[in-house]
Amino acid sequence: MPMAPVTTKCNLKEVNRGAWTAEEDQKLAQVIDLHGPKRWKSIAAKAGLKRSGKSCRLRWMNYLRPNIKKGNISDQEEDLILRLHKLLGNRWSLIAGRLPGRTDNQIKNYWNSHLSKKIKLNENRNKGSEIQEPVLDNSKGNETVFVPKGSEEGTSKRDDDYNSTPCLFGDTMSDFHSAEALNWEWMSQFFEINESWDYFAYDII
DNA sequence: AATATAGACAACCGCACCAGA
DNA sequence: CTCTGGTGCGGTTGTCTATAT
């Protein structure tokens, strides 16, 4: 049950903050239905919402947008997140782009609350072992995944940074972005077939 | 039953990029 | 070229719920 929004003053304008109400959701959805999901500031105004455009956009992108998959992350999805995170790092929007119906916020939250802990746990387990790099044991699949050195680096936010970077999926990261073939089935097969690819991928990024 | 703690996730914030004036 | 508004992104915080004590 969402709390009633808190009204605060920001730049002399009163804005609602905090959880969205069903009524606000409805107003926002109606305006977006009419005008499309752009010009968020004017959408907020048209909807008569005391919300920032930014807040409206976020609400739409993470909650109201059609085809958003809610509920638990499946084992298959988790596996894909792990693999994509190894490849891309904390590029949540890119990772989410490969998981139909999932938002970057969902992926990020799932990573922070589930997967990062798993990884830390396994790092501790493997301290002192001969394996140099952290290991993640996916308990559900009994799978061991090696996280290569330097995977925690490269936190640049923009996609542009990858554009000149050679990539397994094409000459550039842009190819990776646009690759139609990179859908769920394709990637699942790809990762399945290329068992040793985990080790190789980081060499080229 | 009351309180404390942890987990989950929605929402906010600051920064960076881009396009148009 | 510079400025500004709009947008997208990742990091972080806040709050609700479930569970433990």
UniProtKB/TrEMBL annotation:
GO cellular component, one term: nucleus
BP-aspect Gene Ontology terms: cell differentiation; regulation of DNA-templated transcription
Domain Myb-like: from-to ranges: 12-64, 65-115
Gene3D superfamilies reported in the protein's UniProt record: Homeodomain-like
GO molecular function: transcription cis-regulatory region binding
Basic and acidic residues bias locations: 150-161
Record's subcellular location: Nucleus
Keywords tagged on the record: DNA-binding, Nucleus, Repeat
Domain of life: Eukaryota
Principal location: nucleus
Protein name, as recorded: Uncharacterized protein
Chain segments carrying region Disordered: 140-163
UniProt key word Repeat: yes
Domain HTH myb-type per the UniProt entry, residue ranges: 12-68, 69-119
